[in-house]
Write a structure and sequence with these properties.
With 278 residues, the chain is mostly helical. The protein contains 14 helices and no strands. Helix 1 packs across helix 2 and helix 8 packs across helix 9. The chain starts with 32 loop residues before the first helix and ends with a helix.
Length: 278
């Protein structure tokens, strides 16, 4: 064999450039956009289910557009101080909040009202809405603002402090509140006396005039033969059940020819009352 044929140099490992090393590989191509979309959609579904905002049997709410709409509502409410643990309560009490057709900007005026008119903090607003989510669907000009004005006029204070009573009071149309107030005036209460009763016992606004207040008043006057002055001294009379408390105790005393003040007749426990007046 010719010597020249043997003179070609051998290629050794040391003579390979760094780019030629077998361990170097180009980066893998990115996953198709469709795969990224499906992964994000899957995680969004899981998140909404964890908040109990999706019915596992519903297929309508699983569409990408529906999920996007519900997520927009969730993000809006979280920007107003709500946490993940609040959403099951909201969904149970007010499921229309999480309808795919719901527009979060529709309820923004209510949050503005609570902050500006009621001077409620973010957490106070959250507390009131959790107790009465339907507040979010009340018209500020037609319902919330007139009701707030009336309640302030009769002296009910600290309406920004979250409670079931105050939240539902604020969500009551002013015409209903005025109807209860006029009823007291019809009984003989002056404007200031009626306002004082409402301040002492704002739960009175939740009672029906025809089904609750009027029957109790008529029983007081006609059966118990008492007058409105006793009612002015003890307006809590309206809070007791006519069938279970007022009538049985009145009849018990009447059978014994006894007459005691309303507060002693109604405030005492059954054991104390029936032990005292055997």
């Amino acid at each position: 064999m010719a010597v020249g044929a043997l003179s070609r140099p051998f290629t050794t490992i040391s003579s390979l450039s760094h780019s030629d090393t077998p361990t170097s590989r180009p980066p893998p191509p990115p996953p198709p956009p469709f795969l990224n979309f499906r992964t994000a959609h899957y995680h969004n579904l899981r998140y909404l289910k964890s908040l109990r905002l999706l019915d596992s049997h519903s297929t309508k709410l699983r569409s990408p557009d529906a999920v996007h709409s519900i997520l927009a509502t969730v993000h809006f409410l979280k920007s107003k101080g709500f946490s993940d643990s609040d959403f099951p309560t909201l969904a149970f009490l007010c499921p229309q909040l999480f309808s795919p057709d719901f527009e979060p900007t529709d309820i923004a005026p209510v949050f503005d009202f609570l902050a500006a008119d009621l001077s409620a903090s973010i957490q106070e607003s959250r507390g009131m809405i959790l107790r009465c989510p339907k507040l979010l669907f009340s018209d500020v000009e037609l319902c919330l603002r007139p009701t707030l004005r009336f309640l302030k006029q009769i002296g009910i204070e600290n309406l920004n402090t979250p409670s079931n009573l105050k939240s539902h009071l604020l969500n009551t149309r002013v015409e209903k509140l005025r109807g209860k107030f006029r009823f007291l005036q019809e009984l003989g209460f002056s404007h200031e006396e009626a306002a004082k009763v409402c301040r002492r016992m704002p739960a009175l606004f939740g009672y029906s005039v025809e089904e609750n207040l009027r029957p109790k008043y008529e029983y007081l006057v006609n059966e118990m033969e008492r007058d409105v002055e006793e009612l002015k001294e003890f307006p809590q009379y309206f809070a007791f059940s006519l069938e279970r408390r007022i009538a049985p105790r009145h009849l018990h005393l009447k059978q014994r020819n006894l007459r005691i003040p309303l507060h002693r007749m109604l405030l005492w426990s059954d054991q104390k009352f029936y032990t005292k007046w055997k």
